[in-house]
Amino acid sequence: MHNFRAQNFGLALLFTMIATMSVAALPVNRRQITTSTDSPSFTAAGGLTASTTAAAAAESGGVAAGNFTPTKPADWPTATQAGPTPTSTVASASDQYLEELSKAIDNSGNSQFTKIHTGDMTYYSQGLGACGDVYDDNSFTAAVSHLMFDSWPGGDISAQNRNPICGPFVPGRQALNSAGLMVSVIKSSIAGFAEIGGDGLINCVGTTAAQCHVPMTATVTHGGKSIQVQIVDRCAACAEDDIDLTPAAFAALADTSLGRTDVMWQFNAW
Fold first, then answer.
1. How far apart are CA 17 and CA 14, in angstroms?
2. How many other CB atoms are found less than 10 A from the CB of residue 102?
3. Are strands 217-222 and 202-203 parallel, antiparallel or unpaired?
4. 188: domain range?
5. For the chain, which ranges sit under pLDDT 70?
6. Tell me, what's the pLDDT at 93?
7. To which H or E segment does residue 6 belong?
8. Could you say which of 37, 143, 169, 226 has the lowest number of CB atoms within 10 Å?
9. CB atoms < 10 A from the CB of 123, how many?
């Protein structure tokens, strides 16, 4: 009995030593117990957050989904002004009809232009927009936030239709003649015109028959689909990165019954 108990005790001690050695030899899985500071965060619904999605879009070269490729407007000017703001805003002897304003603006240094915006998209009824042009609900046009519109380089809140965010003016011009009548002074193959007033400032007529700008465009993406819209208006209720679409543009991306949903968008550089 004594020898049997001693053998049992020896076996128990041996098993205990082996178990202890095995536990000590197991490597710790530090990845499971360490909080990563660079892992992507997720929304409650399980998708990537807006900031992570925007970063991924930037890395891939833009916001367009799938094979979507934005199209350069046929009327987009071939010449670009020097600098981020209009080089001339009042008619002068050297630029009697402000033809310089029919050139594009160099927005390469404007972070609002180059960044990828993540916010909400909504829709509204179109008409005469802040840029001075008239569109209907079937157009693929949009309004940006008042925060962006009002702070755009070269913009003037008291003269919204002269804000560079509206895009370059069409080449056509009307101006006052010696009799005080507004007459055509520059004709163009592009429909529409802008007016040069007696004060030397340029303005839009604000009718469907007189297109005033060649609008900048943006690619808008939601739910794996992308569209291209023209930026033509100012949204007074939008947060800085929101975009307000026409009903037709919204419906191309989501059910209009939503009213508001997440979006990612970016200006197109031509």
1. 5
2. 23
3. unpaired
4. 66-267
5. 1-61
6. 96
7. helix 2-25
8. 37
9. 23
261 within 8 A of 141, measured Cβ to Cβ: no
Q: How many CA atoms lie within 13 A of 265 on its CB side?
A: 31
User: What single-letter DSSP state applies at residue 240?
Assistant: T
- In sign, the C-alpha dihedral spanning 71, 73, 74, 77 is negative
pLDDT at res. 83 = 86
Instruction: Report the CATH number at residue 230.
Output: 2.40.40.10
* 244 found inside a domain: yes
Q: Would residue 37 count as lying in a domain?
A: no
Residue type, 70: P
| Overall domain count for the chain | 1
Q: Which residues contact 72 (CB under 8 A, 6 or more apart)?
A: 268, 270
Q: DSSP class of residue 269?
A: P
Compute how many other C-beta atoms are within 10 angstroms of the C-beta atom of residue 124. Answer: 17
H-type alpha helices, the chain = 2-25, 30-33, 50-60, 111-114, 146-151, 247-251
Contact criterion met (CB below 8 Å) for 81 and 103: yes
At residue 117, what is the residue type?
H
Structure confidence at residue 209 (pLDDT):
87
Q: CA–CA distance from 242 to each of 56, 92, 184 (Å)?
A: 19, 38, 39
